[in-house]
Amino acid sequence: MTDVRHGRGYVYTIQYHIVWCVKYRHKVLMGDIDVRLKERLHQIATDNGFTILEINTDCDHIHLLIDCTPQHSIPTMIKTLKGVSGRLLFKEFPSLKKKLQGGHLWNPSYFVATVSENTEQQIRQYIGHQQKK
């Protein structure tokens, strides 16, 4: 269970389960690309002041459990994670750009759900089992 945090004049615990897909559902999140993606996303989150508690992929989509402050907006976090990771992965793996016509790694849509202390463990297990299906 995530700790309750204190801000200046407020108390909070905010977690989101976020999922998004590779453009055209191409199965490219494997091997070195998968490893580097996860490293990059953790670094992007750290640089922007939020935390990825769980992360896993299943070839064509990614699941994250994110812990953040009330100051973080969902669209801004997702735009940053998708935009920066896509740019960095295309730079590091030029073959990706050839597979994905149009130069976009990610589908523009995403799924997001709030996480409560009652559902956190279930979501952690679900994310952890993504590649084991």
Q: Could you walk me through the main structural features you see in this protein, from its secondary elements to its overall organization?
A:
By secondary structure, this protein is α+β, with helices and mostly antiparallel strands. It is 38% helix and 25% strand. The protein is built from four helices and six strands. The strands form two sheets. It has a four-stranded antiparallel beta sheet with strand order 4-5-3-6. Strand 1 and strand 2 form a beta hairpin. Helix 1 packs across helix 2. The radius of gyration is 15 Å and the shape is globular. The two termini are 26 Å apart.
Number of strands: 6
Q: What is the radius of gyration?
A: 15 Å
**End-to-end C-alpha gap:** 26 Å
Q: In sequence order, what are the helices and strands, one letter per element?
A: EEEHEEHHEH
- Portion of residues within helices: 25-40%
Task: List the defining traits of the structure above.
single chain, 133 residues, alpha+beta, four-stranded antiparallel sheet, two-stranded antiparallel ribbon, 6 strands, globular
Short summary:
Helices cover 38% and strands 25% of the residues.
Reconstruct the topology from this structure.
Layout: E1 5-7, E2 10-12, E3 14-21, H1 31-47, E4 51-57, E5 61-68, H2 74-92, H3 94-99, E6 111-114, H4 120-128
Antiparallel strand pairs: 1-2, 3-5, 3-6, 4-5
Helix pairs in contact: 1-2
